[in-house]
């Protein structure tokens, strides 16, 4: 692949188009200027970390012979970044995406959604975790479900995302599968990132969060992880101790996926170029090292597979959001 890309870059020297990239006579496309990778949020979060890791590996391994600069475009749960990419267009702008590309438009907070962009590739999978304080009376997800069935309003659930977004809907999806009346759930939105502090301060009963956040506090003995949303038990220190929903008889899973998209009118050859570059990047030892450092799991999907996956996820989330009265 690297030799092929290198050949395409050499051939692109003649007749290259600054705005769209270049195509060799054999149909190959390659970028002819730096690529802008958008993280639609501030520094330090999942989108930013993913974008910078991809950029770092791409450049270090010389997967793409052009600079891939990361730019943060925070705001609107991702909507500000999506608007930027939509206006920028062309073949040299990409962005990292995840479930909010489905939730935010469904909530009516953005006019742009997944169908307004070109799916490049699915990259990684992470999972949600449902956490309680170490001294909580709930020792399993089924304990919590039983209490919710008795009185859905008696338990407060906090998440760091807005109502109707990732932390909220991961929990809604899980307890609905267990037979809880999701219309009466009490969800607290801690968009300032204070969810764990609220849990440890006994201000809420349950914290719906990402696996990484849960693992750190569980290792310190401050919380109990009632369930994680992976389809199968995970391997690794501490995380292997966390029970899945399915292990507790709840037939549900929730993948916190992340992938890459581009502008809607991106040239098909450019999209395939980036898809193959992502695939090659994920086969390198450097990527595997970075991936393991963050506790990610590979979930490569081609552009076509990614599009099909997004369409199915959209239908599922639309149904759930309508049921809890949060769909536009």
From TrEMBL:
> Region Disordered: what ranges?
15-35
* Residue spans crossing the bilayer: none
The source's domain of life comes to Bacteria
Comp. bias regions, Low complexity: 15-29
| Pfam families assigned | TctC
- Family to which the UniProt record says this protein belongs: Belongs to the UPF0065 (bug) family.
By what name is this protein known?
A: Tripartite tricarboxylate transporter substrate binding protein
Which organism encodes this protein? Answer: Guptibacillus hwajinpoensis
- Organism placement in taxonomy: Bacteria, Bacillati, Bacillota, Bacilli, Bacillales
């Amino acid at each position: 692949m690297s030799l092929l890309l290198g050949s395409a870059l050499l051939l692109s020297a003649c007749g290259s188009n600054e705005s769209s990239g270049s195509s060799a006579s054999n149909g190959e496309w390659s970028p002819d200027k730096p690529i802008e990778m958008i993280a639609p949020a501030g520094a330090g979060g999942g989108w930013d970390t993913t974008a910078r890791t991809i950029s770092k590996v791409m450049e270090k391994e010389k997967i793409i012979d052009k600079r891939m600069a990361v730019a943060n475009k925070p705001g609107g749960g991702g909507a500000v970044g999506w608007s930027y990419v939509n206006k920028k267009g062309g073949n040299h702008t990409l962005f990292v995406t995840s479930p909010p590309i489905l939730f935010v438009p469904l909530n009516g907070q953005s006019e742009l959604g997944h169908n307004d962009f070109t799916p490049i590739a699915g990259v990684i999978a992470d999972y949600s975790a449902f956490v309680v304080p170490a001294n909580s009376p709930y020792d399993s997800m089924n304990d919590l479900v039983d209490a919710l069935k008795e009185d859905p309003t008696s338990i407060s659930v906090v998440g760091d995302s807005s109502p109707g977004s990732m932390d909220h809907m991961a929990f809604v999806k899980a307890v609905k599968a267990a037979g809880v009346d999701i219309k009466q759930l009490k969800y607290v939105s801690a968009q300032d990132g204070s969810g764990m502090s609220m849990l440890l301060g006994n201000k809420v009963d349950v914290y719906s969060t990402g696996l990484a956040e849960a693992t750190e506090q569980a290792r310190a003995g401050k919380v109990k992880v009632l369930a994680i949303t992976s389809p199968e038990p995970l391997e690794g220190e501490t995380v292997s101790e966390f029970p899945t929903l399915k292990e507790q008889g709840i037939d549900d899973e929730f993948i916190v996926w992340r992938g890459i998209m581009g502008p809607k009118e991106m040239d098909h050859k450019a999209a395939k170029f980036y898809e193959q570059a992502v695939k090659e990047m994920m086969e390198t030892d450097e990527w595997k090292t970075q991936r393991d450092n963050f506790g990610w799991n590979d979930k490569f999907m081609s552009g076509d597979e990614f599009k099909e996956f997004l369409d199915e996820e959209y239908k599922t989330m639309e149904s759930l959001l309508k049921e809890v009265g949060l769909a536009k």
